[in-house]
Every structure is written in structure tokens, then in C-alpha cells.
Amino acid sequence: MNELYQIPYEYSKTGDITIGEMTTQFDFLFDTMSFCEHPQTAVVNELMAMTKNYQHVLSLVFAVNQINKNPKILPNISLGFHIYDNYLSARMTYQNTIKLLSSDNMIVPNYNCERQNNLIAAIGGHNAEISLHMANIFGIYKIPQIAYSILAPARNVKIQLPSFYRMIPNEANQYAGIVQLLLHFQWIWIGVIASDDDKGEQFLHTLLPMLTQHGICTPVIEKTLTLSDVLENPETLETLHAITFSIINSSTKVFVVNADPQTIACLKWLIYLYKQLEDIIQVSIGKVWLMTAHWDFSSETFHRDFDVQVFHGALSSAIHSNEVLGFREFLQLLHPNLPKGDGFIRIFWEQAFNCLFSDSNGDSENSNTCTGQEKLENLHGTHFEMSMTGQSYSIYNAAQAIAYALQQMLSSTIKHNSGRLDPPNFTPWQLHSFLSSISFNNSAGDFVSFDENRELAAEFDIINWVTFPNKSFLRVNVGRMDSKALLEQRFSINEEAITWHSSFNQVLPIALCNDNCHPGSSRKKKEGEPFCCYDCVPCPDGKISDQKDMNDCFQCPEDEFPNKNKDQCLPKVIIFLSYTEPLGITLAFVALSFALVTLWVLGIFIKNQHTPIVKANNRDLTYSMLISLSFCFLCSFLFIGQPHTVTCCLRQIAFGIIFSMAVSCILAKTITVVLAFMATKPGSRMRKWVGKSLANSILLNCSFIQAITCAVWLCTAPPFPDFDMDSLTEEIILECNEGSETMFYCVLGYLGFLAIVSFTVAFLARKLPDSFNEAKFITFSMLVFCSVWLSFIPSYLSTKGKYMVAVEIFSILASSFGLLGCIFFPKCYIIILKPGLNNKDQLIKRNNM
């Protein structure tokens, strides 16, 4: 059977075992078949070389040469190869795939007569469609096929294509990495460009839900046309204009591009069209192009003059690659006349260097003559690279994987058969079990193995493309994305190593619907706008936001408070009534002064203890009351300073018991006066109650009741040091928690009860003769005492922190001084300044008046 199409571009080398490859070097526009005559080649347009893809051929040649020279791999067995082109055509792919399975120069399926090359596996193709066309044929014969296509040709490759392998990580890892990259730079207002075909639809169907799920909006989604669509339908020119202006004039600064060759070719046409329409020679579009792993920065020969700086600063995911030792030297020795059987090199050489060989049948208008001495390193990177590209690296690894699998298969066969197996007797299906489980370190030091889906178990690199005016470029590895790594290691990027487009002045580009919400505010969705558009509203009182674009403000921890800008939490200051501050010093000084005054009064009374004014109204009760008042003043010191467990327990207990003793003394003095006057009446039975025993009994019993109440308080719910985090915004109050407020108010209530009883008795006895009782003074002193403590309760409840303590100290000092001043200062006045009135005759005289 003769071939349907005679396009003589192939490269072969004989060996004991043959590896086939289907590469993509050239592109033709074929005429459609009419089936009215015998099928033959009918090319509509001239051959268009993809010069950069020639490295795909050379990487296999280089790998096979390395394997054949390595005595540790396949000893005594030579590898050969047979490379065909698919011309981006389904019918040419099927034809050349069958040729790999047929006898030389003949297409005879299932017939191996006089066949010399023993095909063990095949590598290819460049894209999903070509890979699927090949798999339809190779799958029938169970021949292993290792593809280097970015997209899988089927949804469930392992089940639908059981003989198919991919030297590429799963594209889902790539999409997840792209989303992580966008989120890392906070790019949430982006455009998406894909081809208007099944590949583009699949790309959009996979990526767009992931973007939405992570809060990324896509206001611009454009589908590019193919070159054949434009040539076949001139009306699409208006569509191209609309797409061009949508992309170029959009406020969107970041575009994610499904960078298959078809989409990139159209994107270049769009940029060229924009320059022509706007009559611009140099255009600075100022976009961040985020390319998928298809992108290899190649340029067709007819785009030789394309301004590559449009893509300056672009980012792309890329198949992980490494520098392979010896590959650059291998390329430097390449000469168009040296490789025997290479049907690709001459056309590559002519189109890459824009020249013609003297014996070429090409366009005679081209005056440049190829000498064969041209240097590959002088070519622009868009046409050819000296370092191995990601796709070439995949082909290199595929050849190595086949060799290592063959080595294991040989070892297993020899072990079981105790002899040498002749290579022609190998069958491709035997290789599957060894190939699927293969794992090795290649010559570049990278670990190579397939995962459970027969895809390369590896990560994607993040590449930053830096272009130069001379149309050269630099490929900078700035990060990686690996979905199978630990969570914190799945995505990494070095921002400092990234070069952005010159229009951004090396400042991180912003891709937002509106300006960032600064710390101290949160986002609020705009009605009727995409969810990425929002207003910024200040944080409410008590809350902060410490990052840009936060959805909600949050409360500070209990021991911190928001600063004025509501973008930071500041530590609260712990406060208490301290001896080091003016208020504490003043109260301590006053308390000490009043205590000394009380002791001074006590001294005066002791010194004049035998005078009538001291002896009247029970001298012992007077001494007890003065001592109690001095302790009342001194107990103020328990309220000043940092609260501790001991001071918290003592302050209220001491206050309650001491004040109860002082008030009990007043009550006892008042009752004694009343009983004394009642006992002076003839026939009164009260005489037996008059004496020190009654006064002492009143003092001890009244104080004992308060002591019992305090003891119960200490045993059930004693006071303790506590931090009040909530009462004040910027401060933490270190205070004494009363433990049981009920017991606290019981102590105060009992004290108030004693005071009211004392006031009542004194008030009733106020008209008794002044010379023998102090009822008027007690009445007035208790009026002051009750007024102070009645005003204490609302003041105490309405203040916070150290001022609450200060209110209680002030009440203690004021009430105590009221008792001291009202009861004892008039007597001191007589004792010191009017000693003549302090005698028995004066008292009798005043009594008779």
C-alpha cells in the first residue's frame, strides 16, 4: 500500500530496539479532501517551521546517544529511534503512527515482513489531540506511549488509555498553583484568555470555578480565534478588533493565558493588530501575563520582528527542568551536513537563520546563503535555546525511563530464564509492569517516577521571563508549586527575584476592582457589583483590622485594646491605687495625719483623765473609741498599694470590725447616758444596769456579731486579687474581688444598722443637760457618719478602678474624722483653751442654771 501523503521529514537511526517519537516541527494548511480522486498531498500554504521545537528531536537523539554510551544500561543492546512529524494534522498523525508500526516505506498494518526496527515504545505528542490520535493506534497493540502534552487527552487516562503515560505532572496541580500565585500577590481582579475550542472550554471549565471559590473575579474573559478561522472568514476581523481593545484597554492588569501555541499565536496577532490600528511603533501594553505550562516563549519565523518586550516580566508555570551535562556541547557540534538521516535539520537551519542552502529549492528572493557555519547560540531565544527546555527535558526523561524499564525487564527475564533473551523477541506489552513502577535519578540528579495515574510525580516551576531589546530573554526560576508536598511547602516564591514589566517601575502590580482597604477598616460589598468590588468602612469601636482588605474586624484580646487608628492592639496598663501616684500619696498622708491627731487627742485625754469632762460619760469607752478611730484611719493603708491575697482579705474585714467597735463605743456611751439619767429618778430600777459592765457588754457583743459575719465571709467566699479586663478600655484594673457581694453588703448593712441605732438613741437624748452628756455631739457626729456612708454607696457603684478604692478610703477618712471632730474636738477645746470650765463647780453651776 502506498502512502497517502509524501512529506519527507523524518529522522531515524537503527538499533536492536527502536524508540519512536511523534514530534511537532512544521505546520501546513492542508486542502480538504473531496474523495473525487485518489488522495494525495495538497498543501494550501508553504511550510511554517516551529524552530524551537527542533530541540524536541535533538533531546531524544542526545538521550539515545547517552544510553548507548553507558555500559551500565542495556549492555550489548543498542537503542535506535525513528522520529516523524505530525504537522498538527490528525490524518498525518495517524499515517505516521501507522508507519512506525509498518515495514519501511510501506503502510501495511499488522505486517512485519523484513522489518528491521523493533519498536518497543513511543514518545509523543506535543498536545492532547495529537497524543490521543497516537493512543488510538498504539493502544490496540499495547505499545507504551509516553506523552509530553500539558493537558491529558482523556479525563480518566489510566482507564480509558491503559497504554498511555505522561512525563508531565497532573494539570490540576498547575491550576491550584496558579490560584495560589494570584492569592499570594492579592490579584483578585484578573482577565482570562483561552482558545475558542474544546481545549479552551476545558481550561475555563476547570479554572473559573477555582477562581470564584477563592474570591477571584474575572471581569474579562476572551476566547481567541485560530489563524485558519481568520483566513477562512474575513468577517472575523471585527471580532478580532473587539477582542484586541477589550484586552489592551481593559483596566485589568493581570491576564491568565492558556498558553497553547494556538492561543499565543492569536495573542501576538492581536498585539500586532493593535499596533497597526493605533499606528504605534513601540507599544507598552503594561500587563502581567500569567501563562500556563504550554508557554515556551517560542516565535514562528514569520514573527521574527515581533516585539518580545511586550511579554517582559511575564510569569509562567513550567515543567520542572534541570541542566543536563553535555547537552550544550552536543548542540555546539551540530552541523547541517553531519547528522545522517536527519530530515529536519536543513529546513530548520534555513528558517532559523533566515537563509537558503545553495542547492535548496526555496524562495530565490532570499539573498542570504546558508554556510553551515552559523552558530546556534547566536539565535534569539524565541527561535532556539541552548539550554534544555521543559518539554525537551520531558522527552529526555521519557527515553531514560524506557531504557531503565528495559534494563529491569532484561534483568528479570535473564533471572527467570537463565539465559540471554534476544531483543527481537521483546514484546512491548511486557514493558508496562516495569515502566509503571520505574524510579531512578537521571543524569541531572532529578528523581523520576510515575504516580498512580501514570503521570510524572513532580512539581511545576514558576518562571519569570525577562526580555531584552535585542530580542533575547532570560528564564528565571522564582518558585515552585507542588500539590503533593506538605501544606506549608506546596507553594513557594521569591518575590525579590521577580522582574516586572517596565511600566510598573518594579513595583508589585495591583489587580483589584478598587483600592485596598487599609488596616483599621474592613470590606463591605457594593450592591450590584461583582463580589471583588467593595467599599471600605472603619472598624467599630473595640475592634481592629491589622491587614489590608480584611472582610471583618476582630476584637483585641482581653489584655489589649485598639489604638487610635484601629489597626493595632496595644497592651493594657495594669492600674491600682499606688503609693507612687499623687492620689495615693495624698490619701496616705491624710490617713496618717488623722491617726496622729487621734493619738494626740488620746494623749490629751489620758493626761487629763482625772478632770470632770474626761471622767464624764465613761472614760474607758472614750479611750476605746479613740483607739478604734486611730485604727480606722490606719486601715486605709490596706486599700493603697498592689492588692495581694492577704491585703484583700484584711482590708474589708479590718474595716468592718474596727468601725463596728467605734460605732459600738458610741452606742454604749449613748445608752449609758440615757440609763444614768433614768437611774437618777426616785425609785428607779435602772440603777442596777448603770456601770461599766453594761457598756463593755454592748461594745463586745456588737463587735462580736460583726466579727462572726466577717469570719463566715472568710470561710465561704473570701476576697481575692482579680483583674478587671472589661470596665476600662485601655487599662486592666487590679482590684480585690469581694468574693461574695452579699457578705460585703451584710457587713456594711450591719455597720449602718449600728449607726442608725446610735443616731436614734442620741437624738432622743439630745435634750439632757449638756454638762453630763454628749448626746448632742453624738447626734451630729452620727448624722455626718450616716451622710457620708449613704453617699458612699452610689459613688462606689458609679466609679471604676483605683477611683473606686479612693472613694472608699475617702469615706473611711471622712466618717472617722466626723466622729473625731464632732465628739472630741469640743472637749479638747475646753481642756486646752478653757480649762476653767473643766471643774466640778462649773459643771454643777451649769447644771443648776
Walkthrough of the structure:
The protein is rod-shaped, with a radius of gyration of 51 Å. By secondary structure, the protein is α/β, with parallel strands linked by helices. About 40% of the residues are buried. Mean pLDDT is about 85; it is low at about 40-45. Helix 8 (about 235-250) crosses helix 9 (about 260-280). The chain has an eight-stranded mixed sheet, sandwiched between helices. A six-stranded mixed sheet has the order 1-5-2-6-7-8, with helices on both faces. A three-stranded mixed sheet has the order 25-27-26. It folds into four domains: about 10-170 and about 390-450, Response regulator (Rossmann fold, 3-Layer(aba) Sandwich), CATH 3.40.50.2300; about 170-290 and about 295-320 and about 460-505, Response regulator (Rossmann fold); about 520-570, no CATH class; about 580-820, Up-down Bundle (Rhopdopsin 7-helix transmembrane proteins), CATH 1.20.1070.10.
List the helices and strands and how they pair.
Blueprint: E1 10-13, E2 17-23, E3 26-27, E4 48-49, H1 54-69, E5 79-85, H2 90-101, E6 119-123, H3 128-141, E7 145-147, H4 157-160, E8 164-166, H5 171-184, E9 189-195, H6 198-213, E10 217-224, H7 227-232, H8 236-248, E11 254-257, H9 261-278, E12 288-291, E13 314-319, H10 327-332, H11 345-353, H12 390-417, H13 432-436, E14 439-441, E15 447-449, E16 460-467, E17 473-481, E18 491-493, E19 521-525, E20 534-538, E21 543-544, E22 554-555, E23 560-562, E24 569-571, E25 573-575, H14 582-607, H15 612-615, H16 619-634, H17 645-679, H18 692-716, E26 720-724, E27 731-737, H19 741-764, H20 775-798, H21 802-833, H22 840-848
Parallel strand pairs: 2-5, 2-6, 6-7, 7-8, 9-10, 9-11, 11-12, 12-13, 25-27
Antiparallel strand pairs: 1-5, 3-4, 13-16, 14-15, 16-17, 17-18, 19-20, 21-22, 23-24, 26-27
Helix pairs in contact: 1-12, 2-3, 5-6, 8-9, 14-16, 14-21, 16-17, 16-21, 17-18, 17-19, 18-19, 19-20, 20-21
